[in-house]
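User: I'm putting together notes for a lab meeting next week and I want to include a structural view of one of the chains we've been expressing. I don't have a solved structure, so I'd like a prediction I can at least talk through. The sequence is below, exactly as it appears in our construct file.
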Amino acid sequence: MKTKSMMRFSLLVISIFLMSHLAIAPAIPKLYDYYHARNTSIGLASVESLVTVPAMMITITVLLSNLVVSWLGTKRTVLLGLGLIGIFGALPTFLTSFPLIVVCRLLLGVGIGLYNSLSISLISDFYEGDVRAQMIGLRTAFLNIGKALTTFVAGYALLIGVNYTFLVYLLAFPVLVLFYLNVPETHQAQVAVKEALVWNRKVGLVVCLTFLVGISYIGATIKIPSLLVTQYGLSTTLSSQLLTILAFSGIITGCFFGPIVKKLGDRTLFAVLMAMGLGNLLFTLPFNLPLFVLASILVGMSFVGIMSFNFYYISKHFPKEQVHFVTSLAITGGNIGVVLTPVLLTKLLEKLQIETFITPFYISSGLMVIACLLAYGLVKIKNR
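Assistant: Thanks for the context. Below is the predicted structure for the 384-residue chain, given as structure tokens.
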């Protein structure tokens, strides 16, 4: 008989891979050297896109996942997603063709997108009341633990060999087994399309906020390694450690978001947006380890705070039947920002002949000023 604790753990642990496409970020400088040595036409932005292109498929698959669930069922859809992560996440270890590696990264995104929204809806299917709230909070914590864990493992695998970084995705297989053994099938209630679809000023502002935050957060994630390793000549291990700190700091916000928003209310959004801007701005200063650790903490904590507030706002200001659709649009906005990050923060700067190590952090800080203006418009919209 399945124990309650194992079922809860199995439901939560699938979330550790939802941001695992970022795990190889510490290896970007070494991966660039590795692939560029084999094909000089491969630029830095192309290698950075290995971190961000999965987000494109995550976006598409999130929107189509309901169709897959109707064909396979919820449990099989999650198992398929985990299987794709394990297979196509690790496969680049053994490939030398850059286009094939890009295809594998796209299929990794499909795997993540298949059960991204299910990681929340499954909790709602099995739990209610305070237990559901606790599980959703723990789900956020597990997501950030997963980002920290996969980034940490990938960073140390890099010490063995640059291509071994991708082996971190083999962790998906034991999670697949846990989920298969401990979580039963469930059937999600379907909502009529006309009831779910909505677009108005509030939706637009939430999507724009997640778009800007996606650029700022992922910009820091992919530019910290380049800044430390290429600009300052420091070790890839240090960049991996900073990204691990960045990820772990988000766990704190995830665990205490409820009391924070209860205390600060709408001011929570402005506080975390300013923290994101300040964190990015600190990376423009000359290298100082304590300062850069603080910057990583600010970026990591603020990202989780911003996204948590957005989803909290959606659940509070939209009818229940519209929440899933609006949440999917918010995730889509963020993922579009993720996909465009290498274009805006690397390729565009290269075209304009602007340095690409420190300037991106100035841009990200500026985007948070714009985000504060959007946030002001969002919180001023009265409840209907």
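A couple of points you could mention at the meeting. Residues 320-351 form the longest helix (32 residues). The chain has 15 helices and no strands.

User: Perfect, that's what I needed.
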